Every structure is written in structure tokens, then in C-alpha cells.
Amino acid sequence: MDLNQVTIPAKDVALSVKFYQNLGLKLIVDALPRYVRFECPIGNSTFSIHQADTSENKNGITLYFEVKSVEEVVANLKAKGVNFDSEIVEESWLWKEIRLSDPDQNQIKIYHAGKNRKSPPWRIKD
């Protein structure tokens, strides 16, 4: 099994399109105002947004986008005017990450885990 698609809700899908394009995702399906789909710049996964009343959506969505260099990506995004909710942190689970929120307050983490994403030192042995 391979996770290849995640869909999140947004009140204003068009506003979210601009936000996620600014992060570097490529728009591949445009059914505004109700739905859009993006390709991620690396790998085969896709990401979509559907129109919904997010004022009642308190489901705690967190999106993780892994990059090779958190510092480089953050510098590029700050140059585009992207605001972050935290500074870059070296987490105890061996990931380097920074947090931000999309227009609907969905949490986003830009991070680098490398081998520690699937093979941390505490991984359960087969």
C-alpha cells in the first residue's frame, strides 16, 4: 500500500490555491470554486483541496512536506512573503522542522527526517 493522495477542506479554495502554489505545488486539476488538485514537486503524491465550511472543521489536520534543506526552503518562502508560526526546531524525534498555517488554519510542517522518518533508532524490529 502506498499513500498517494491527501485531500483537505478549505472555505476559500481559490485563496488556498495561491498559498499552496507559493509553497511550490503544481496545480493539475482546476474545478474552482469547489475542488483543485496539485502534484508535489518531488515524488508521485498528489494533494487536493475541496470546498467546505471550515468553521466547523476542527479535525486537527497536519500536513508534512519533507525537503532536503529546511533552511533553504524557508529562506525561499520567506522571500516570497510566507509567514511561519515557529522557528526551525531540531525535534527530539530526530526531525528538523518548522510550522506554518494555511488560510484555513490547517497546520503545515516543512521538515527533514531523512532515514529517521521510517527507520528511527527506536523502530520496532521485524
Automatic annotation (TrEMBL):
Domain VOC per the UniProt entry, residue ranges: 2-113
Pfam families (UniProt xref): Glyoxalase_2
CDD domains linked: VOC
InterPro entries, per the entry: Glyas_Bleomycin-R_OHBP_Dase, Glyoxalase-like_dom, VOC_core
Name of this chain's protein: VOC family protein
Species assigned in the record: Winogradskyella maritima
Lineage: Bacteria, Pseudomonadati, Bacteroidota, Flavobacteriia, Flavobacteriales
